[in-house]
Structures are given as structure tokens and as C-alpha cells.
Predict the structure.
Amino acid sequence: MNRIKKSAVPLHFIKETVSINRTSLIEPSNVIKKNDFRYLQKNNKISTSIIFLHGLFGSSDNFKLSNKLLIKKFEFVSKQFDQILSEHDPNFLKTNNIDIDLYNLDIRNHGLSPHSSEMSLNDIEDDLHLFLKDNKILEKKLKDPELHKIILVGHSMGGKSAMMFALNNPHLVDGLVPIDVSPSNYVGIHNHNTKFEAMLNASKLFKNPNTTKILIEKEMIDSGLENKGERLYLLNNLKEINKNKNNNNNNNNNNENPLFSWKLNVETLYENQDKLLGFPNNEELIQTSTNNKLPQFNKKTFFVGGADSHYLQLAHRENIHKLFPNHEIQLFQNSDHFVYAQKPRDFADVLYNYSKNIIKS
């Protein structure tokens, strides 16, 4: 992908940065033992961007806890090594840092990102490309690929979009972590109709001046969404509109302004859910490739999933072998589709180990 489509939208994101001693990414005792400081003597500025893409109905807040634990892990290991190294030769601590930027994106039609009538995996891929360009990440990567690494971490829909981007732009991606998803077509196997219909029915209450969050949740239950966890996840997208403004409007006999709204573009997502549940088959991937061959991402890809989930089963893994031949799969016990939230510490630990190996390579 060389050109960004005009339909691409600028994404809202949350950025966090951790600065660590780059040598903490390798075994410090081995460096000291061998008296080998060549790795430390690279004074070129190294940086890494780890970009997180949430799933359907999610937002940039989804990875907040696991990212906090990931940053703490980087900092803890780096401080340990700083102490060891300072006792040996403190001068090396001065010019040996690496910046790791964590970006949590709001995918289009979610969170604080713009709404659009177009919604597909290709659209998300275009938005990601625009994000890299607007935030100078693309410029750094193209200028010196060895000094800047890009790691994509995506859950469900975000994982599919990340896989598409990596297949079409392997030169821009150094690491890939799809979470509880495979490059498979789930249309006809899964759908989110009950969730969408519950949200649309709840929307009818938004202009009622007596509406409360409790009444909205009750309407979702009455619409068939009985799973409390699913309701709470969707209700994270509920936005309460300024009460004072509406009180003033009510005093002016204007009752048309809603008290609530969804951050999500519910109608567009509902209309296009099959595009998000699907994935191009091999023939389609070949047709859109630059060399008329089945694209492959040959760098190390780390699939993470929940052992109780239905999205990363044996039946889904054939395409993983074809498209991502250099891969590893790890399933966490007693967790399902939202493994990163159910096992945040374990997830942060495996993501740290994977990222560390990508960054230092």
C-alpha cells in the first residue's frame, strides 16, 4: 500500500511512553561476564511503537490495565539492569536509552474517532496507515528500519485489521500479536445481532427526559441481552449529554435534545458487521497482492487467545499456517475472548517477552 485513500480518517489515540536502558532487553549477566559492551556502544537513537487496536464495541481504554502492567515490567527490568551496570561502568548509562511508545487507538466509528458510513477491514487498514503517517512513525520507519520498530497488537476486529496491514505492508511491521482471532471468516458462525438490537432499542429512550442508565440497561435486558458482562461492556460506550444544557432547553419547551447517545456509530457497524466478521479468502488475497501470489508475513507472529473462546480453535488455524508461517500460539486457561482483560498480568508478561525479542533483534 503506497497511497492512503481519501476516505481514511484521523484516529483518536492515547499515547504513553516508557524510556528504558536498551541493554536491559538482553541478559545483563552475560554482558558483564563476557565484558562485552558493544551493544551498549550503539549511540544511535532507537525507538519502538507498539500500537494497540481494540475489537468491535471497544475503545482506546480497553488495554489501559494491561498496558500499565507492561510499562511497569519494562521499567522494573530496566532499573534492575541500571543498578548492575552502574556498579560496573556508570558512563554507559548516559547515552543508552530507548523510547517505547504505546499507542491505544480508537478505531473509526468507535470511541472519540470520527464516524463514517464506510466500515470494513480495509478501511481500518487505511486509517492505520494514515495514523502512522500523521504521527511521523512511518517517516522514522522508512528512514531507518533498523532503528525504529513497529509492533501491532490487535484484539478481534483490531487483530484482523492488524493482520491485513502486516500482509500488505510486511516491510513496515516488525511484530504482530493478534488476540483471540484468526485470519478466518466467522460469518454464519458468529454474529452480534442481539447486541446491536439491544443498543438500537435502548436508543429510543434517549430523548425521554425521565431516562436513566438503569432504564437503558433494563431496556437492553428486555431486548434479549441477558449477559451482564456483555451489557456492561456495551454500556461503556454510553455518553451522557450535558444535563445543564438540556435543563435549559427543557425550560424553553424544547424536548428534542437527547440526554444520552452512543459513542459508537451503531447503525453503520450493524450494517457492516459481516465485513468485520469476515476475512479475504486466498483467491481474494492473491488478486489484491502486488505479485499475484498468496501474501505471507514471515516475521514472528504471536497469537494469544482464551482456552474457553471459540475464535482460535483448531478449525481456524489452517489459514494461520498459510499466511503466518513463523507463528506461535498461546492459549490462557480459564479465559475466553477478552483474555487481555481477564488475565492482564499474564498477558502483559507474554507481551513483554515477545516485544523485548522484537526490539533487540
About this structure: DSSP finds 15 helices and nine strands in the chain. Residues 34-41 have pLDDT under 50 and may be disordered. The CA atoms of residues 107 and 139 lie 22 Å apart. The two ends are 25 Å apart (CA to CA).
